[in-house]
Amino acid sequence: MIPDFPDEPEPSERRHPLNSLWRLRRYLHPYRSRMIYMLVLAGIATAASLAVPRLIQAVIDGPISNGDTTGLWLLGGIVAILGIAEGVVVWLRRYIQAKVALGLEADMRSDLYAHMQRLHAGFHDRWQTGQLLARATSDLGSMRRFLAWGLIFGLMSIVTYVAVVVQLLTLHLWLGLIVAISAIPLFIVARNFARNFIAASRAVQDQQGEVANIAEQAAQGIRVMKAFGRAPHIQANFDEQANILKDLSIRKMTISAKSWALFTVIPNTTLAIVLVGGVVSVANDSMSLGSLVAFVTLQLMLIWPIEALGWIIANGNEAMTAADRVQDVFDTEPSIVDPENPVAVDRSTITGHVRFEDVRFQYEETDTPVLDGVNLDIRPGETLAIAGTTGSGKTTLVSLIPRLYDVTSGRVTVDGIDIADMRLTDVRTVVTMAFEDPTLFSMSVRENLTLGRAEATDDDIDEALRVAQAEFVHDLPFGLDTRVGEQGLSLSGGQRQRLALARAVIVRPAVLVLDDPLSALDVHTEELVERALASVLSGTTAIIVVHRPSTVALADRVALLENGTITAIGTHRELLETTPAYAEVLSAEAEEVTA
Ligand SMILES: Nc1ncnc2c1ncn2[C@@H]1O[C@H](COP(=O)(O)OP(=O)(O)OP(=O)(O)O)[C@@H](O)[C@H]1O
Asked: Does the beta carbon of 563 lie inside 6 Å of ligand 1?
């Protein structure tokens, strides 16, 4: 079933899509002189083509009626020169137009990408990747087509229409008036078309995002799908959404087909009336044959701009809704930003003293806080493990330290400085994080490793690889220069995890946050990594989310997270002796791991 079109697309309740398009006019600024050239060139081409019917009139009423062959050569020559000039001008305009169009699209895409990078993690939690992809690809394409083609063609169509109608009125007043009046039904059709098409267009674009999303998820989760034999189910889901897209597109095309039919019928009916009226006028001697031929030739020149009107309106509407969708992203302000007056941070003097002071945290659009009243004091150079049941908020807690999320209340400090008062670049130089699910980018191993510290030397890389037990990279076909596949999928889970750990270690941060970074390693490798890590961690404050008892061995102290707060803290041995809940958490995790 096709979902009903919203009366107005949802975001349009806040703004008209035209405003969204208008707000993007800044992108035209760098190209304004080239756009003026384009308009001038388009004007010259139109003037040249408009002159041809008048020359035909002169040929018929002059040399042909009088049998004057010399005059014929002259007029024929002028027509040929005008034709060539028009061709050259059209080529030049299209060349400039293509460069402007692609430049505009590249500028918008680059800004959108930069903005998406600035947006906080919470935004990306809420937005589907496919919807963002559709905005960065097909929506920007629609806007490019309109700003660089539709807009110019629209303006030229209006200029051509007015210029032709003025000429027609001078050739024959009454017939000219008939053509001018035909603009009224055209205007009504165009207005209705624009109204109906806009909702249809937004629905199609939103659904394109939905389909892109499913395709993207299917590509990413291909292994899980196959392993669970869910391919037919996913296929059925995809087909359903693809069918909705097809039906929405058909509805959109039906709206445009009806209007396009009228855009064709109205000028052709007018042409038929003019032909009859014109022949009668020639028979009455109130119009010369040359004038009638010029009249009809000029009128034929209107057919294309009128037919193109449908395309221009459709293109304009698509561009408006696309701009509306893109503005949805641009209008989302990054909520995690640099403070107005950042505190100067000298990395070399930071000792890594981390404190959580009465921290409360609640995810956007959820009802209850995940963390409430968290107090922690992690001494410089100390390694603290965070233990807790699944879903207790361990990842959330450690994500607050590099400011992936901001606390809802309370504060997190490093060496007494509230991290919200530091520049983001400073926070992320002081704090580095390795995640349980390590994302590697589609680039060389070296580039992946030095993501957080581009100036790292080969010795730094070697040491990090040793700590993370990731020396296997030297055995890859091109060593450090081997390009790992999309998201590093050509490597095993454990290999990816070790590379992600090496990537975090290489930064030599004052505070290292490890979110269960060894979960994919076998016990033997884990032990080797732990031993090497212990030497690196001696001068670094480390906060490690742990699930298995073996990882706890790395920690000086362990904090137990329960019901959104720290309920116990001490050495592993102390907690085992004093806190039954701690022993339960670890044994439950250990059982899961063993299982
Ligand atoms: N982006 C998010 N938006 C809304 N709720 C979230 C988000 N991420 C996590 N949560 C919720 O917050 C709670 C804590 O999640 P978190 O991932 O921090 O737990 P965890 O202790 O690290 O779990 P695990 O041990 O399974 O990794 C869970 O109830 C989870 O559903």
From this structure: no
How many whole angstroms separate alpha carbon 341 and alpha carbon 206? 40
- 242 in a structural domain: yes
- Specify which residues 413 forms β-bridges with: 355, 418
Ligand 1 atom nearest the C-alpha of 388 is 21
Q: Which of 270, 301, 330 is the last residue of a domain?
A: 330
Alpha carbon of 362 to ligand 1 centroid (Å): 11
pLDDT digits (tens, 9 = 90+) for 452-502: 888 889 999 998 898 888 888 888 888 888 888 665 557 887 888 888 889
* Percent residues over pLDDT 70 in the chain: 94
Average pLDDT, rounded, for the chain? 84
Residues 285 and 407 in one domain: no
- The Cα-based distances of 577 to 459, 558, 587 in angstroms read 43, 13, 14
The structure's pTM equals 0.70
Provide the CB-side half-sphere exposure for 345 (13 A, CA): 27
What is the interface pTM, i.e. ipTM, of the complex? 0.96
Ligand 1 pocket residue status of 370, Cβ below 6 Å: yes
pLDDT digits (tens, 9 = 90+) for 162-212: 888 898 898 888 888 998 888 888 888 888 887 888 788 888 888 988 888
- pLDDT of res. 539: 77
CB atoms under 10 Å from CB of 478, counted, come to: 11
Is position 551 within any domain?
A: yes
82-to-47, 56, 86, 290 alpha-carbon distances in Å: 9, 12, 6, 19
Domain tally, the chain: 2
> Based on the domain organization, do 370 and 424 belong to the same domain?
yes
Interval between CA 10 and ligand 1 midpoint (Å): 29
Residue nearest to atom 31 of ligand 1 (CA): 391
Question: Residue 335 C-alpha to ligand 1 middle, in angstroms?
Answer: 20
User: 513-531 pLDDT, tens per residue?
Assistant: 988 877 767 777 777 777 7
Give yes or no for residue 366 CB within 6 A of ligand 1.
yes
Residue range of the domain that includes 313: 15-330
The reported pLDDT for the residue numbered 487 is 56
Whole-angstrom distance, CA of residue 474 vs CA of residue 485: 17
Ligand 1 probe mutation, 128, 362, 364, 370, most atoms within 8 A of CB: 370
Ligand 1 probe mutation, 359, 366, 368, 392, most atoms within 8 A of CB: 392
Distance 281 CA to ligand 1 centre (A): 83
